[in-house]
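ERR on first pass: missing label on line 2. Operator R.T. fixed the label and resubmitted. Corrected input:
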Amino acid sequence: MAMSNTTVQPPHTQSPDTSALDYFKSAISDEIRYVSEQKAAGRGIVGFYCEFTPRDLILAADAVPICLCGTSQNTISHAETLLPANLCPMIKSSFGYALTGGCPLLNDSDLLVAETTCDGKKKMYEVLSRDKNMHVLELTQKPDEERAFKHWLAEVEEMKEKLEQTFQLKITEQKLRDAIKAMNEERRLILAIQELGKHKPSIVSGYEVAQTRYRVAGFYQHMEQMENFLTMAQERIAQGYQAAPIHAPRILLTGCPTGHGTEKLIEIIEECGGVVVVQEACSGIKGVYEEVSEQGDPLEAIARKHFNIPCSCMTPNKKREEMLKTLARDYQADAVIDLVWQACHTYNVESVLLHDFVRNELGLPYMKVETDYSSSDREQLKVRVQTLLELTQ
Amino acid sequence: MAMSNTTVQPPHTQSPDTSALDYFKSAISDEIRYVSEQKAAGRGIVGFYCEFTPRDLILAADAVPICLCGTSQNTISHAETLLPANLCPMIKSSFGYALTGGCPLLNDSDLLVAETTCDGKKKMYEVLSRDKNMHVLELTQKPDEERAFKHWLAEVEEMKEKLEQTFQLKITEQKLRDAIKAMNEERRLILAIQELGKHKPSIVSGYEVAQTRYRVAGFYQHMEQMENFLTMAQERIAQGYQAAPIHAPRILLTGCPTGHGTEKLIEIIEECGGVVVVQEACSGIKGVYEEVSEQGDPLEAIARKHFNIPCSCMTPNKKREEMLKTLARDYQADAVIDLVWQACHTYNVESVLLHDFVRNELGLPYMKVETDYSSSDREQLKVRVQTLLELTQ
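pass 2 clean. output:
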């Protein structure tokens, strides 16, 4: 796929070494090989579908944590032979991989850790559990109540026990502390890449940043290549490279997560001359914004960090507004675009509140985009996005 | 509206006194008057939108419990000016009443008790809470885990405190016991009416039984009229009255709840010559199947009874299958029809599992009907239902 920012990149600035970018674009094949090797070497493989699932805990069980969220349009028609069509494309795509057996990472998984974050996933997991070894985490959804946190903590403790049983080992406090440290380092690298978006003029496009997200956590190659990506960015600064003109409208993208193959909206924004300076979604900054505390009880620290994720499944989800306020300021956003995957009820309804918050509290233009993984609405979306960008200038 | 069973009622059998039936058809006006009087007399008025909300607790606070679930197509277009169109009609209809101010029962409510049972409602409540005094109950959703029950129990305790604060009173243990007793009596009456469906040949139609459901609990008139309805049924038996021919296909209706004005599917089934012998939904038998225990701690008993409701928001929801098995046997069902309101993800996905259960475990024909409150698909549904009924004969 061509880089999406070719239309906005000033011709006189040439990007330095882009090998890190190339790496992440095709990292899935390295991941498949790595997971297969790790499995052969006796390590456990644990798949999951949500940012609320603590990778730290899976690493502490010396297992490989893999985010299995489906980002392919191709598996959706398979899913729809069993699931209702009126579900979010991420759920259908993920389920389609299970039906077709087309995802080696899923096929290699010894255990799936599911969660009760949204209705569609919660019930899809029941269908999936007919064929897969599954453990369900119950996420309580009143984020401001200590009692809700205590229940979540107990669920995280139960997940620890499940991992211990599954892989016949003991997750010691030291293993937890080591895993937290490793994941914090990984989160810091991801965050550092996201924070490149703060530069004005932009030194990286939103599309480039989105490319650096991957599925397998705790994989040394990814860490090396994230370092390389950061080095590339420093070289770009040194060379005066601009990923977008200084007056390109700076977009804060919020809402549902994107993934490899579902960057449609990011591509459109940047094809239209804007630049996605930060993505608030869990495919962006949401999951790495806060670290796991390295003080105190490690399991409680893991539970706390994840409980604080400002997902629309929470009620009320005031932390999302706080985060958007901070991001809009720090990344000098000119407008907010809210991506809602079709049939994602929580983000879809929360948009009613977000619209008012962005317009009235942040004083920024707001646009909600409800779409799916297909490209059928591309031209229509382009007109809408183009119009929004015009209005910001 | 004409009684829907006129086409199947044998001409030689005349129904006895139908005054109870007439009463329930227009009971809303009595309810509006009653609630207004009670409010004027100083009683608290508490609205809610879900069978999980314990009416017992509201009665124990000497307040009037009102189910506010919207069943009007007319308010949906109003709701869609703010909410996404892709939400279940019950959520939109309920919200539409809040926007239009067209429901005196809602307008009279001092407090709304909401819950986290499904994504659409959970987030709709956040929008509603901008204008209404609201308390949110968090329902944990792993029905087989004692820890989940404990959290729910704590939420029910918090609801008690909220009621005490709101209405400046103390809910004593005696008040709880009295309220449980009163609600158990009411539930027994509702259940007795539902159980009339066991008769073969049918002495009441599903449409008639559906008419007897109401909104305001603890209202003496309703109790009297339910007694009258039961008396009418006894007279019908004595007179050999048949609400449907003995060979009319007996339908177990499951899935989403119906209400006054949304009996479309029941009407169609009975217009096509079938008879709905029992409705498993919370507008049918689901909420009254189990009583609150009058032994032990009353608050725990209230929490337990409600936690046991086999709603599709639970994961997994095995109790629904158990209930369907019992109902199919006790009501001599010939087929199961599963009503799914459009965009109700939990019932929609659970249908995948239910299809297999009904076909393989119960050995009965199964049909899922996904529809909304409009009548636009009436003729199409009629063809499908007619075909199903043919296949059962």
